[in-house]
Amino acid sequence: MSVRELVVLGTASQVPTRHRNHNGYLLRWDGEGILFDPGEGTQRQMLRAGVAAHDLNRICVTHFHGDHSLGLAGVIQRINLDKVPHEVTAHYPRSGQRFFNRLRYATAYRETVEMVEAPVASDGVIAETGGYTLEARKLSHPVESYGYRLIEPDGRRMLPDRLAAHGIKGPDVGRIQREGVLDGVFLHDVSETRRGQRFAFVMDTRLCDGVHALAEGCDMLVIESTFLDEDVELAIEHGHLTAAQAARVARDAGVRHLVLTHFSQRYSEPDEFERQARAAGFEGELTVAHDLLRVPVPKRR
Question: Could you say which of 67, 204, 219, 291 is catalytic?
Answer without folding.
Answer: 67
